[in-house]
Amino acid sequence: MDAVFTSLGLLFAFCVSDYLPWLRGLDLDGHEKVVKEANATVNRLHDTVIDERWRQWKSGERRELDDFLDVLITLKDAQGKPALTIEEVKAHSMDIILAATDNPSNAVEWALAEMANAPEVMAKAVEEMDRVVGRERLVQESDIPQLNYAKACIREAFRLHPVAPFNLPHIALDDTTVAGYHVPKGSHVILSRIGLGRNPVIWEEPLLFKPERHINMAEGGDVVLTENELRFISFSTGRRGCIASSLGTDMCMMLFGRLIQGFTWSKPQGVAAIDLSESEHDLFLTKPLVLHAEPRLPVHLYSATGI
């Protein structure tokens, strides 16, 4: 995980060779060496798993689909032939690891941290969970459409606490004008996630955690985690937006849903309020979130296949 976060941490780093291409290869910033070493660490671990799983399917040892990796390996084209080579499976797996490691976990951690300081918000989310799902079974993906307040909590976490300060850099392909500003062809364009989500022109009391705002603006009464109006960014946006936003929604909501359904969360004894300050190096919490968790469901639901 350290290697994954090392690579992610350099996505927005300034690189001299981006502006002076003839310096490429010299690695003046030292970024290339660091990223190569981090990627080698990740590949050494994840390639071993994929190679073994690929062998099991090709030899016939494995016949049942147990996870996403099995799905990738067994995909067929229109002629019934394997749709992906092993290298393509590895590439897709790496994309999923990089895209799905920090965003869902960051949103859920921030949501729980904010809700720990606002017990009335936590109570509303738990009340909705009990009303929609109950306490005799675990929340499932099929319940997500009905959990609008829980989705609003995650949307608010995405808005107020984005996983990264900026989107990936883009280049203007032509001269254009945006909001009265002239953007020359070839300009590097960096979109501020923080600026969007905390814009006081768009958001009333932008620094407050208020999930209700997303209930009020939901079209047709259905809250979704994606944001097409660019009022904030959750899973990227536009024509090159995240192709796995549905998967990202399920990952966020299943993690968040199981946590608030399965446990009563409270601040540790002697802690008046959770410290919501951001790290100096990223937008994660300065200190890992520590809360007191008390089980609230029947014992048999806390099994290896449950929570």
TrEMBL record:
Binding site for heme: 242
Keyword Membrane: yes
Keyword Signal: yes
Reported cofactor(s): heme
Pfam families, per the entry: p450
Sorted UniProt keywords: Heme, Iron, Membrane, Metal-binding, Monooxygenase, Oxidoreductase, Signal, Transmembrane, Transmembrane helix
Cross-referenced InterPro entries: Cyt_P450 (IPR001128), Cyt_P450_CS (IPR017972), Cyt_P450_E_grp-I (IPR002401), Cyt_P450_sf (IPR036396)
UniProt-recorded Gene Ontology molecular function terms: heme binding; iron ion binding; monooxygenase activity; oxidoreductase activity, acting on paired donors, with incorporation or reduction of molecular oxygen
Signal peptide: 1-17
Domain of life: Eukaryota
Similarity-based family: Belongs to the cytochrome P450 family.
Protein name in the entry: Cytochrome P450
Native species: Triticum turgidum subsp. durum
